[in-house]
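Technical annex, item 7. During the second reporting period the consortium partners agreed on a shared format for inverse folding records so that results from different sites could be compared directly. Each record opens with the tokenized structure and is followed by the designed sequence. A conforming record, contributed by the partner at site C, is shown below for reference.
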């Protein structure tokens, strides 16, 4: 009898929502397991969905850090050519810095800057209330199943990203996104996310960033230069002019080296070429040399 009473208690009632074009965008992170270059690993998809237009889009990343969270917004707004009036989030760390009491939340400072620059309102759902952004919750599952259920082996991370964008275009063929685009707020120039750092070039013509080493042209040895650090790349500047660019390394104590940075030194020290790290970093060139 007690169990029957429990089962027959009043069920929760949900109110169906209907949104105008350009009013609401929902955001969430999802996980997907991929085999890239023979290695199984967990990757993250930043998913955007528009309930009014039934439009879904996503970007593939290697983590859920703040710079990835910010980058996904900038890429999406740039692709759309406009801004939604409101973006809805759950209580992830990138959105809520800390809870004050039961209902008050302190929003992340970087998200506030992003919303002020692009001019959208922030809407954070209640805790454990995924139904309050149900369209994006469903979109995460749909994208994971439609895009990566059959095809999950890739040679490179870039191949997986290209496959995702290709499949999303097919997935959105029946959406009403073309009707929604004129209703978006005007486009803003892309927000600059690079963090500028002052670094010194060591005797090997390396700079050290986040416990990894990157080569720079040899004439910069022992000089102070600037590096603009993004989530996926590093651009090096000297006297305000860009001198080289590297793909950012994910590990620690690893080296990204470009043999072109040492050509004059090799001309002066030809004996140093045989066992140099720069030559060994290019196996095909090393085999030709041998």
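Designed sequence (site C submission):
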């Amino acid at each position: 009898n007690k169990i029957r009473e429990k089962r027959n208690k009043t069920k929760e009632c949900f109110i169906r929502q209907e949104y105008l074009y350009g009013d609401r965008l929902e955001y969430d992170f999802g996980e997907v397991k991929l085999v890239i270059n023979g290695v199984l690993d967990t990757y993250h998809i930043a998913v955007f969905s528009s309930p009014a237009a039934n439009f879904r889009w996503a970007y593939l990343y290697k983590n859920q850090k703040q710079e990835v969270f910010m980058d996904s917004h900038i890429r999406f707004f740039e692709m759309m050519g406009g801004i939604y009036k409101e973006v809805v989030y759950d209580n992830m760390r990138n959105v809520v810095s800390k809870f004050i009491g039961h209902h008050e939340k302190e929003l992340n400072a970087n998200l506030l800057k992003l919303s002020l620059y692009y001019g959208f309102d922030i809407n954070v759902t209640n805790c454990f209330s995924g139904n309050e952004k149900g369209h994006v919750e469903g979109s995460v599952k749909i994208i994971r199943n439609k895009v990566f259920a059959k095809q999950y082996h890739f040679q490179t991370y870039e191949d997986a990203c290209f496959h995702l964008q290709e499949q999303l275009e097919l997935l959105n063929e029946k959406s009403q996104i073309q009707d929604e685009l004129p209703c978006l707020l005007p486009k803003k120039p892309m927000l600059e996310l690079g963090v500028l750092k002052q670094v010194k070039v060591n005797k090997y013509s390396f700079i050290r960033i986040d416990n990894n080493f990157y080569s720079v042209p040899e004439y910069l040895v022992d000089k102070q230069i600037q590096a603009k650090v993004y989530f996926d790349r590093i651009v090096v500047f000297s006297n305000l002019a860009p001198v080289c660019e590297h793909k950012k390394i994910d590990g620690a104590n690893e080296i990204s080296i470009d043999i072109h940075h040492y050509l004059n030194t090799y001309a002066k020290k030809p004996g140093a070429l045989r066992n140099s790290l720069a030559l060994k970093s290019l196996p095909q060139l090393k085999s030709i040399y041998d």
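The first strand starts at residue 24 and ends at 36. The mean pLDDT is 91. All partners now use this format for quarterly exchanges.
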